[in-house]
Specification:
heterodimer, A: alpha/beta, Spore Coat Polysaccharide Biosynthesis Protein SpsA, Chain A, 7 strands, B: 126 residues, mainly alpha
Amino acid sequence: MQICKKLLIVPCYNEESCIGGTLQELSQVIDRDFKILVINDGSEDATSEQASNTNMALVIDLPVNLGVGGAVQTGLKYAQNKNMEIAVKFDGDGQHDPNSIAELIQPLKDDIADIVIGSRFMNSNQGYQSTFWRRIGIKFFEIICHLLTGKKITDPTSGLRAYNRKAIKFMSSHYPSFDYPEPEEIILAHKNNLRIKEVPAVMRDRQAGSSTISSALSVYYMCKVTLAMLFIAMRPPIRKEQTNNA
Amino acid sequence: MLENLERIQIISIIGSIFFLFLISKLIRKNMLKEAYAILWLLFGSVFLLFSCWKKGLDYFASIFGIYYPPALLFLILIMALILVLIQFSIVVSSQNDKIRLLTQEVALLKNELDKTQQKNSPQASA
């Protein structure tokens, strides 16, 4: 039996209509040494069945809905338990392009980064650029990120990310746990000396499902995420012993 | 301390005793953990104290520069409620973390269990 050392984490919540297609597309494009892990975040529909029926992915069902953060962390814990070398987080709703993955993990192979973010705004500005208001929100987080870390992250809300072993170990214990964890994750990683790098990635409009953030909730999330970013920046770095114990 | 009881004092003494009695009963019946009852018992006792000892209320109110002594009771009450609510927020946050960890652990273990069962089932049927 082939031992997979790379894990593709696909968190999904109520995505029965598109998860099958996403997995089909993924398995055609990615290397064979990738194991696909679907984290079904307590969906009420047939997401789990749809995913297992493709026979292309391992499905882990969370008994209750934890939010994206908790789902991704489950995948990272799996990666940590199985001693994976690389973990990639890939959305199940068809937003991300599987062809971006090879480029995404290259900096990890070259050992010039611990976490790689796929950015839709770098270089070419191809593909789906999101709606006007959402772009304003992304710009806002970019500024906050820049103020708190001194780094230029062009797409801080991007969910397309890759982690090396060091990042898997750290994030499996300390990943931001609520919905919409991406901008917080950047501050947390920077604070704890994980190297972050952005590479260009093409994104598409979601094929089905709805965003984790509805417009009515977006102001609440903006405040919540900003607050979390500020407090993570104010906290001292998490010490090694804590990382080991958790 | 208890001389010349006014009607409001009698009512508030009875009220405070009833409150303390209620909290103790909840603890006794295991419906309330001692750790979460400490603040309730503490502030219940403070209210009982000031119900009996009216001059004490006047005295502390004058120390704080409060002209209308019963306003001190409201201040204490509001502080008590805020403290208890903060305690609740802390408990909710820590439970949130614990539930998340347990959920993740259950999901990962269930996956391991399924795998072990699948591995064992062909041998069992053979």
